[in-house]
Design a protein that fits this description.
The complex is a heterodimer of chains A (173) and B (419).
Chain A lengths: L2 E5 L2 E5 L4 H11 L4 E5 L5 E2 L14 E5 L3 E10 L13 E8 L13 E5 L10 H4 L7 E10 L2 E8 L16
Antiparallel strand pairs in A: 1-2, 3-4, 3-5, 6-7, 6-9, 7-8, 9-10
Chain B lengths: L18 E8 L10 H16 L8 E6 L6 H8 L5 E6 L4 H14 L5 E9 L17 E2 L13 H16 L3 H15 L13 H6 L2 E4 L1 E2 L8 E10 H4 L8 E10 L17 H12 L8 E4 L4 H10 L8 H5 L17 H4 L6 H12 L33 E9 L2 E8 L3
Parallel strand pairs in B: 2-3, 2-4, 10-11
Antiparallel strand pairs in B: 1-8, 4-8, 6-7, 9-12, 11-12
Helix pairs in contact in B: 1-2, 5-9, 8-9
Chain lengths: 173, 419
């Protein structure tokens, strides 16, 4: 069954043939983070794919994954391109390296999941919070509800984690 | 520099110097062309055909690329009266220029046609904004795009930014070093009457321009323009009868990629770009290395893209791109000038074509600057590179073009001076 939603005036949809994304977002709608786990090589992968990037197997099962990690890189948008985001600047897109499955199958591989920096309630983080986050910041996953059956994973500062003294930020504020 | 003799015909390297770029052409670079992409394409094609000394009926192959923002070969060929033995219009932006030159060589080598025209026609300012604003910015977000566009992660600058930022983090690259890419390319543009932006910029001006998307200031981003561009490729033996001593193609690598093109940030180091892989095809095929290159066109959709490619193709050590681009090497008059037309940052945004066109003209010794015309109708280049002056590279024998699609995909080409 296709999923549709309106997110800040932006039309989001997943077609009914798109089993991989339907599977991923079905869990998100329940505020759960699941990734495909290969039935043959047992590696997790992100984003959803139709075969395993590590062994090409077509068989996978959705598996729960801890939504925790560290900011690996980021961008901070001050001039929004999409109309939906104009009222949200400055906003961050965080590329977060999950704690799970780092350095597998090779040292250069990791699960890196992109989402916005939000408050724990899924609302966009205000400018003072944006300024406190950089490479090294520990984050945990939360969800923004878009519509019935559609929620987007987001990242928020992990209040319980030990944070770096000074996360790395672009030198010009 | 001296070049090795031709190589074993049982390897792809035997194609060294066997094909030439015999003609190049472009429209004026504008914002608001007032023309269709069809009209821009035929204008550029007619200029390139005339530049080569060919007739339209000599063109029997045609290639183009676009992001659904152009007009296909069928209309262009019809408009100029060329009957084609081969044509193909493909999807793609940056890195397509060199890749399609490689395809042109392949189809001619396979005997499908004899003379290929490659064009890119775009209203990158007045119709489909290349920076991603306008109609495309409000398009619905479906399926796989939910993992990026739904987060306001959509435009080229936004997409590439994690690579740029991680490079600064890992290597201590400074904004003022990266800004030098714009400074140098703008100096070159000031000596190019065709350039859309001819103003010379300073590091301070780059760093005080508004932030678009950290780490990119407005002046770290290329210009958006409307233009058509065209390149004609044929066999070197045929090129001898044509108008110019045409530059010969030494070697090409096309759309060479990092792992995980579905989402390349899964595989690191993410500060590494496709040139890391492409260099191992380009340099052996060309029989030269970065130290042999006299002038470079390093795709400058952004200041960073130029710098990162220079590192991964081996013009400097990984992580030392910031020092390299701010050392003076890349300036006209320096050891290895780059983007001598002003590139995408200043001359025009053409998805790579104008930087190949520029290197062709450099190798022919006929860049169109303000130097005086000699009695033979060719410019007498002074090599005085002050503002508004000469932009010819002295004694240029071998050039490289480094084309960029995104951090994970690139194409490149080495050319040598014709004889």
């Amino acid at each position: 069954m296709a999923i549709r939603g309106d997110y800040m005036g932006m039309a989001l949809s997943i077609d009914d043939l798109d089993g991989e994304n339907l599977g991923y977002f079905k869990h998100c709608a329940e505020h759960k983070f699941h990734l495909q786990k290969c039935d043959d090589c047992a590696l997790l992968r992100y984003p959803p794919t139709t075969a395993c990037p590590f062994c090409a197997s077509g068989n996978a099962t959705w598996a729960p994954v801890e939504g925790k990690g560290e900011v690996y890189s980021y961008l901070e948008v001050h001039h929004a391109i999409q109309p939906a985001f104009r009222a949200k600047t400055p906003y961050m897109v965080l590329l977060v390296q999950l704690d799970t499955q780092q350095g597998a199958p090779t040292q250069d591989d990791a699960l890196r999941v992109a989402a916005n920096l939000t408050l724990p309630n899924g609302e966009f983080a205000p400018p003072d919070v944006v300024k406190s986050v950089g490479i090294g910041t520990r984050v945990r996953m939360v969800f923004s509800d878009v519509s019935d059956g559609l929620s987007l994973p987001q990242w928020t500062i992990d209040e319980t984690a030990k944070q770096p003294d000074k996360p790395w930020r672009y030198p010009q504020e | 520099m001296p070049l090795p003799a031709d190589t074993d015909v049982s390897t792809p390297k035997y194609l060294r110097d066997k094909y030439a770029i015999v003609g190049v052409g472009e429209t004026t670079y504008t914002r608001g062309s007032g023309k269709t992409t069809r009209a821009l394409g035929t204008w550029a094609l007619r200029n390139a055909i005339a530049d080569a000394g060919l007739k339209p009926s000599d063109i029997d192959g045609m290639l183009s690329y676009s992001g659904n923002d152009s007009t296909p070969s069928t209309f262009m060929a019809g408009d100029i009266g060329a009957r084609l033995n081969f044509y193909m219009d493909c999807m793609g932006g940056g890195s397509s220029t060199e890749a399609l030159i490689g395809i042109a060589i392949g189809v001619m080598e396979a005997g499908l046609c004899n003379c290929v025209a490659i064009f890119r026609a775009m209203n990158g300012f007045s119709q489909v904004r290349i920076g991603g604003t306008g109609a495309r910015s409000a398009a619905p977000v479906n399926g796989d795009m939910l993992h990026n566009r739904a987060y306001g992660w959509q435009s080229a600058g936004q997409n590439f930014a994690p690579t740029f930022m991680r490079h600064m983090y890992e290597y201590g690259t400074k904004p003022e070093q990266v800004a030098m890419v714009k400074v140098v390319h703008s100096e070159h543009a000031s000596n190019n009457p065709k350039a859309y932006y001819k103003k010379r910029f300073t590091v301070d001006e780059v760093l005080s321009s508004r932030i678009i998307c950290k780490p990119l200031h407005l002046l770290d981003c290329c210009v958006e323009t409307d233009n058509g561009t065209a390149i004609i490729v044929t066999r070197a033996d045929r090129a001898k009868d044509l108008r110019h001593k045409s530059p010969l193609i030494r070697g090409i690598v096309g759309r060479c990629s990092k792992p995980r093109l579905d989402m390349h940030y899964q595989h690191g180091p993410i500060s590494r770009v496709a040139g890391y892989y492409a260099k191992d095809i380009l340099w052996p095929n060309a029989g030269v290395g970065p130290e042999d290159i006299d002038a470079v066109g390093a795709y400058d959709a952004f200041t960073f893209t130029s710098m990162l490619q220079l590192e991964d193709y081996g013009f400097c050590k990984k992580g030392e791109g910031g020092e390299y681009v701010s050392s003076g090497i890349t300036r006209l008059g320096g050891r290895r000038p780059q983007n001598t037309s002003g590139g995408h940052l200043c001359e025009a945004y053409t998805h790579g074509m104008n930087m190949v066109i520029e290197n062709v003209r450099q190798l022919r010794g006929d860049v169109d600057d303000s130097c005086p015309m000699g009695p033979d109708g060719k410019r007498v280049h002074t090599h005085d590179h002050r503002e508004g002056g000469c932009r010819a590279v002295k004694d240029v024998e071998v050039t490289a073009n480094l084309g960029w699609a995104n951090p994970a995909t690139g194409s490149a080409m080495v050319m040598r001076r014709g004889f």
